[in-house]
Amino acid sequence: MGMTIVEKILAAHSGKKSVSPGEIIDVEIDARVARDFGGANVVQNLVDNGLEIADPSKTFFTFDCNPTGSDQKYAVNQQICRLFSRTHGIKVYDIDRGIGTHILIEEGLAYPGSTAVSTDSHANILGAVGSFGQGMGDKDIAAAWAKGKIWFKVPESVKLLLSGSFNEQLSAKDIVLNLLSQFGANSMLGYSMEIYGDDIDSLSLDDRITISSMATEMGAIIIIFPPNREVQVYCEARTGRKINPIFADDNALYSKSFEIDVTTFKPMVSRPGKPHDAIEAASMAQIKIDSAFIGSCTNGRIEDMRAAAKVLKGRKVAPGVVLKIVPSTDLVWRRCLDEGLLEIFKDSGAMVSNAGCAGCAAGQVGQNGQGEITVSTGNRNFHGKQGKGEVYLASPAIAAASAVAGYITTPDRIPEKPMIFSRTPSPEKENQKNKELKTIKKKTNKVKGKAWYIPLENIDTDMIFHNRYLTITRMEEMGQYTFDNLPGYEDFSKKAKPGDIVFTGKNFGSGSSRQQAVDCFASLGIQSLVAESFGSIYERNAINAAFPIVVCENISKLNLDNGDEVEVDFLQGQIKNITKNISVASQKFSDVQMEIYHNDGLF
């Protein structure tokens, strides 16, 4: 009995003449990749287990989840990987290069008949060039780096025959959304899918990448295409050598076979939460959108950029709508520049970012907020995947058309005038709530508590409340992060007690204007903050928030130890170490500070 494409690739990489479904084998991996997401964990696994790198020339880092280095945790992980790579001679495709799976194709590291693994769950995108790519966890990747091989269970194969010719209106995204709507999220679970058909050879490399990229959303191990002439020529140019592509035997055995008439396919949109919940775009109601995103490993190729530019040329993004465009790789970005696409994007009012995963990675370009409705060309719209809002999946052309229209639509149905956001009145309950007078607790002009003495100067707002927490807006959540970036005091929030009073040195609260650096102390129940001097913005923030701060140039004379009982008198300007019976003068509250303090805040 003959073998399928995947079976042939796995047999060739396991030293076997043949393999069969269900058989567990050790497979030689041609490209072994870790991203910035998970890369540091791969390093940790290697270090903890005393493992070496089997072949550095086949081992790579790709930094695509956070190509701006704007997230502190990602920046730390990236640097861990860079340092490890310098020691072990590993190639790093850094934040200026783009999406790792696409780089593997561009750099000739993935090609027909090859194998690759990555910490990217969409590594099976490499099926677009007839390569067997798989996403894995950090332990698997570390083992592959150390051994050069990893175990696989040979998957059962499905043969999918697409009969008929594709309608010119269809994009590759429409094709795969039609397939998803038919097969759902799990009917192909664990299968390797091979795609054949009357019009398959007409699909470009970019088309194939889009379709293969959504195998994961279908539950499949991989969607693999038999390479056409275009793919073979491209891969030979990238690898610099002759390639013999792998094709299935005529008598290959498939567990299932399906034939689908593609002439019935329509432009599609997936509704929020489920990529497979796809319906015909033309049947959708006019759903108002807040934003659109064009990019990702699914639709960040040059053909996707051209499709978007064709719609946007001479048009403007609807008022109030934000359109974000992110090419998949730096090479694609540069082609956009050379072809004048970036100018079209900017003239339309779109925002263009550097290459990378963007909206599919937390914190990057393309994320949306609570209540926001987005049309995205990504591969997933699970709740929370691209932010707190709702995400509809669509092709680049539909995303661009929707951005211009202000609601979800197709390029042939863009209105002359866009849909505009209407002004919505506040709910009556909120209006009434705002009118009600705030009940203010009567405050005393002096406080007693246990002292926390931090004898340091120039404690800035990043030390007090680091910028990685700036998205936190609820005061009750802030306290736990107080001083976690101040060396020696990282555990302050766990040890501090409600009613404590903090004493410290000069220029406390220098740096940024973040209000959280004040509110975090109130969150912990700290009664007052006494310093030799305060940063000017910090001082205003504290006063306006009715948080009692006191300037005292003679703190050292109090001979403080942590836990001493102290009393601070705001009206008289006096501080007393009750435990040691020592008193010093401090600045009194000004009339303004006292008024705001008793008013419970500026408002």
Describe this structure in a few short sentences.
With 603 residues, the chain is α/β, with parallel strands linked by helices. The protein contains 20 helices and 25 strands.
Task: Describe the protein's topology.
Elements: H1 5-12, E1 24-28, E2 31-35, H2 36-48, E3 59-62, H3 72-88, E4 91-93, H4 100-106, E5 115-118, E6 132-135, H5 138-147, E7 149-153, E8 156-163, H6 172-183, E9 191-197, H7 205-212, E10 222-224, H8 229-239, E11 256-261, E12 268-270, E13 278-280, E14 291-294, H9 296-299, H10 302-312, E15 322-325, H11 330-338, H12 341-348, E16 351-352, E17 373-376, E18 390-393, H13 396-405, H14 428-435, E19 446-454, H15 461-464, H16 475-478, H17 492-495, E20 501-504, H18 516-524, E21 528-531, H19 536-544, E22 549-551, E23 565-569, E24 574-577, E25 582-585, H20 591-598
Parallel strand pairs: 2-3, 2-5, 3-4, 5-6, 8-9, 8-11, 9-10, 14-15, 14-17, 15-16, 17-18, 19-20, 20-21, 21-22
Antiparallel strand pairs: 1-7, 12-13, 19-23, 23-24, 24-25
Helix pairs in contact: 2-3, 2-5, 6-7, 10-12, 10-13
Structure description:
This protein is an alpha/beta fold and 603 residues long. The chain has 3 domains: 5-264, Aconitase, domain 3; 268-413, Aconitase, domain 3 (2-Layer Sandwich), CATH 3.30.499; 446-598, Aconitase, domain 4 (Alpha-Beta Barrel). The chain has a 7-stranded mixed β-sheet. Strand 21, helix 19 and strand 22 (549-551) form a beta-alpha-beta unit. The longest helix is centred in the N-terminal third of the chain and has 17 residues, at 72-88. It is elongated and about 95 Å long.
